[in-house]
């Protein structure tokens, strides 16, 4: 990974925390975008940006400005920021759909559009998004979430078609992720069948590497053992 500059959104979530640590270990320059405040024990190798509201384009633009001032133009963007909702359609309002769209698509869109002019200049540009297996076929309670993540996935495919040969755009599609919150919410489930945060970050690392340069416009399932 060397001196590549990596922007990671959603850095305060379970998946984002693991991604930040892994890319630190690989020697990358890290700009970590936090929705709230940064952890008190954050590694000094990370440049943290707090209170990021990526539904606002100006926040995304500010991250790019900070990245270029601190390190250099970004080479890799990993869009993790997002959120989940479970509601049956009879209880789901249009405002619920809009909220999920904002959390999952708009955050990714604003950050990608802000970063794209710079990433396209990199000789190894990467955009890595997080879709969802639940958006391949929506199940009970998943309508608003699935619609928003489906938008992420279609955007990923289209952007991959429109970018140059020096960069790739892909999305990873987790199923249920093994997190403390999911274990609490589903106490009767078997978490050994779920995909782990480490397994998902393994895929991110591969897609960001030279070895992953031949993969573009792909929606890669990370279904664990479900």
Describe the protein in words.
The chain has 226 residues and is of the alpha/beta class. The chain has a single domain (5-222), classed as 3-Layer(aba) Sandwich (Rossmann fold), CATH 3.40.50. The protein has helices spanning 14-25, 57-70, 94-119, 143-162, 180-185, 197-208, and strands spanning 5-8, 29-33, 46-49, 76-79, 125-130, 167-174, 219-222. The chain has a 7-stranded parallel beta sheet, sandwiched between helices. The radius of gyration is 17 Å and the shape is globular. The model has no long low-confidence stretch (mean pLDDT 95).
What does this entry show, briefly?
This protein has 226 residues and is an alpha/beta fold.
Helicity, in percent? 25-40%
Number of strands: 7
Distance between the ends: 32 Å
Shape: globular
The helix count comes to 6
Identify the CATH homologous superfamily.
NAD(P)-binding Rossmann-like Domain
Low-confidence stretches: none
List SSEs in N-to-C order.
EHEEHEHEHEHHE
Structural class: alpha/beta
Task: Supply the CATH architecture.
Answer: 3-Layer(aba) Sandwich
User: What quaternary form is this?
Assistant: single chain
CATH class: Alpha Beta
- Please tell me how large the radius of gyration is: 17 Å
> According to CATH, what is the topology?
Rossmann fold
Number of domains: 1
